[in-house]
Design a protein that fits this description.
single chain; mainly alpha; ABC transporter involved in vitamin B12 uptake, BtuC; 2 strands; 73% helix; globular; disordered C terminus
Length: 292
């Protein structure tokens, strides 16, 4: 029983990071119908910036703020300069552009910081809590990860549902032509959507960095798991991305603990294939997809 509780707690902590990455992918997909395969490279680059701040004597919190701000700016710049020229064109063009951007970011990070992975400090201690003499695989750092993702999810939900800006962003994503007729600056809303998605991705990068270290290719697996979480939940559903991330995190934790760590990636692949076979649009997808 203790092992099951430990694996569940560890899965929730890892799943929260997958949920954050999946949420970033969903935000961009809802706005532009583009799967941002460069998301892993973007969060890797901003996490390297945060690591640089810490290496030069800055605090964890200053590094986190730098990563979030850098992600926000990077997302806006990428949408304006790289994505906008291919928006509305053949879907394959956007796929190639995002894959190319991923390669460029990884190469640039390797030239600037080198290819050797670097350790990244957690926000709080990784020493697990002790309850009735039993040490759990749940530490203050894990609670911070789960709490940070929960706050980000609630903040985004409040933005989209309770503010005029959120309403404009939703209108620009779902009905751009009508939104333009109503005076909404659709281009600016799409840029803001990419910026927010990159900010959430940067948060995920900083949260997962203590576990995977910081290197040009260290975040590839996290991106794969985040993409799997988004597909499981449904690429049109922010809630689905969060739930999908938590479910996937627990599932992979059980596979690792009860079977073998060697087949964790296979477990994610099996979960993805199963969902695509049974419900291709995702578990939380609406009955009818919106028109582009």
């Amino acid at each position: 029983m203790v092992q099951f509780i430990d694996l569940t707690l560890a899965g929730l902590s890892a799943g929260a990071v997958y949920a954050a990455i999946g949420l970033a992918l969903v935000l961009i997909w809802r706005a532009t119908r583009i799967v941002n395969f460069a998301q892993g490279g973007m969060l890797m680059f901003t996490t390297f910036l945060a690591w640089t701040v810490i290496e030069h004597g800055g605090s964890y919190w200053l590094a986190l703020v730098v990563a979030l701000l850098a992600g926000f700016v990077l997302g806006a710049v990428v949408e304006r300069l790289i994505i906008r020229p291919v928006e509305g064109g053949p879907p394959l063009n956007a796929v190639i552009v995002t894959l190319g951007l991923l390669v460029v970011l990884q190469a640039a990070a390797g030239m600037i910081w080198g290819g050797t992975p670097h350790s990244y400090p957690p926000a709080f201690t990784i020493r697990g809590f002790t309850i009735s003499g039993t040490r759990l695989l749940l530490a203050p750092s894990d609670l911070f990860v789960i709490g940070a993702v929960a706050v980000a999810g609630v903040a985004l939900a409040a933005l989209f549902r309770l503010t005029d800006l959120g309403l404009k962003m939703r209108a620009a994503a779902f009905a751009p032509e009508v939104a333009r007729l109503l005076g909404v600056r659709v281009g600016r809303m799409l840029t803001l959507g990419w910026a927010l998605a990159a900010l959430v991705g940067s948060l995920a990068g900083v949260l997962v960095a203590p576990s995977v270290f910081v290197g040009p290719n260290q975040f590839d697996s996290a991106l794969v798991f985040g993409f799997t979480a988004a597909v499981i939940g449904g690429l049109d559903s922010p809630v689905g991305a969060i739930v999908g991330g938590l479910v996937l995190g627990c599932a992979l934790s059980y596979v690792s603990g009860y079977i073998s760590t060697d087949i964790v990636t296979f477990g994610a692949f099996a979960a993805l294939i199963t969902v695509l076979m049974l419900r291709p649009a995702g578990l939380f997808a609406g009955r009818a997809g919106r028109r582009v």
